[in-house]
Design goal:
Blueprint: H1 14-33, H2 38-42, H3 52-72, H4 91-95, H5 101-124, E1 131-135, E2 140-142, H6 143-169
Antiparallel strand pairs: 1-2
Helix pairs in contact: 1-6, 3-5, 3-6
């Protein structure tokens, strides 16, 4: 194992490359949010209401939705199933300030781990071309589409996290430092 396991392989299959790109973005996102207290996770910049804590919770939701509900059709579990989404469509962002840093890190870490397991099982059972539950009655998306959509989601929010983290304590960087492991 290398000291930069998030680095995509120089050569690999399509699924290896796509999943490695996604995991690199996940690692960079997690690095940008790592080791902060409640004040750091709640910090806002400019006129934006976006926070690192809100992004952790949002991406945990997206992981469970994308690679749970959209992949298999399974309903979202706790805490998502208890939310009145009509009353607060941005609940994951608005409620994050009330969560402890440990709870936010654990929520995201667990959601990302579930997603990796679900995608690995799906790939073993049919590859990227297999239809998933997401789509319309006439046409379903395939697993490739879900993975590409998740890469896009992380790309956007990892950029947000870069900017917010720099405002919190000056940390910058495209990738985690070699040997980095989450502290919380």
């Amino acid at each position: 194992m290398t000291d930069t396991p998030w680095e995509p392989p120089l050569q690999g299959t399509e699924s290896e490359q796509l999943l490695a790109a996604l995991d690199r973005l996940r690692a960079t996102f997690r690095y940008n949010t790592d080791g902060l207290d409640a004040a750091g996770l709640s910090r806002r910049i400019g006129g934006s209401t976006l926070t690192l804590g809100g992004l952790l919770k949002h991406l945990a939701l997206v992981e469970d939705h994308q690679f749970g509900a959209k992949l298999t059709g399974a309903p979202l579990g706790h805490p998502w199933s208890e939310v009145d989404w009509d009353a607060d469509p941005d609940w994951e962002f608005s409620s994050a300030a009330g969560d402890s840093p440990q709870a936010l890190y654990e929520l995201w870490d667990a959601a990302a781990a579930r997603s990796r397991e679900r995608v690995a099982a799906a790939l073993a059972d049919g590859g990227l071309d297999q239809p998933v539950q997401a789509g319309s009655e006439e046409e379903h998306a395939n697993l490739r589409r879900l993975v590409c959509d998740m890469i896009e989601e992380y790309g956007r929010h990892t950029g947000h996290a870069d900017l917010i983290r720099e405002a919190v304590d000056g940390r910058t960087g495209e990738d985690p430092a070699p040997g980095w492991k989450p502290t919380r």
